[in-house]
Amino acid sequence: IQDYKNIPLSVIYYMVRTPQIINNSMTQYTKVFDQDPYVVKNKHINFVALPLIYKGILNGIIYVENSIDSGAISSSRLETMNLLSSQMAVSLENANLYKRQFELNKAYQRFVPHSFLETLGHSDILDVKLGDCIDQDMTVMFCDIRSYTTLAENMRAKENFNFIILFFRKDILAS
Fold it and tell me: Is there a contact between 128 and 122 (Cβ–Cβ < 8 Å)?
């Protein structure tokens, strides 16, 4: 954030330490921010900084400034902005939760092949419920197919099954 020259950094740092509404028209803040290089450079700005707080944690800061009209940020507008800031904090948290869920879903898909999900009749791992299974008779046979590991690593699950089915059909037909 130190690289930004077009915002009053002292306001941002103050907001991080004490997350409360900052309005430079309020006299208690006048001396605190008067030395900020941005405020000195832009003498006639009127600004407000609002914290985006969710469950007591600062998630962001809204900084609004106006250099045209000194009365543009009235107390009623400040109240509206404060109300909206709490909704924005909730929206930010929801967006972060959605992003996390999406990333978890992608991670699960790396460990559970899509073909396995299809055999259970599902298209997404989130649809799988505890106890989902397919009751099916199965024959287990052991056979040594030369260089099978090397071949199997380059095939998808369906191609692997087809290869084994064809291998055993040929073997059965040959005997």
Answer: yes
Tens-place pLDDT, residues 158-174:
998 888 888 877 655 55
DSSP 120: T
Instruction: Name every residue whose Cβ is closer than 8 Å to that of residue 116 and which is 6 or more positions away in sequence.
Output: 157
Q: pTM of the predicted model, to two decimals? A: 0.56
Largest CA distance in the chain: 98
User: Which of these, 68, 8, 62, 65, lies nearest to 38 by C-alpha position?
Assistant: 8
- Determine the 3-state secondary structure of 78 from DSSP: helix
Q: Where are the beta strands (DSSP E) in the chain?
A: 22-23, 46-54, 57-66
125 contacts 105 by C-beta, under 8 angstroms:
yes
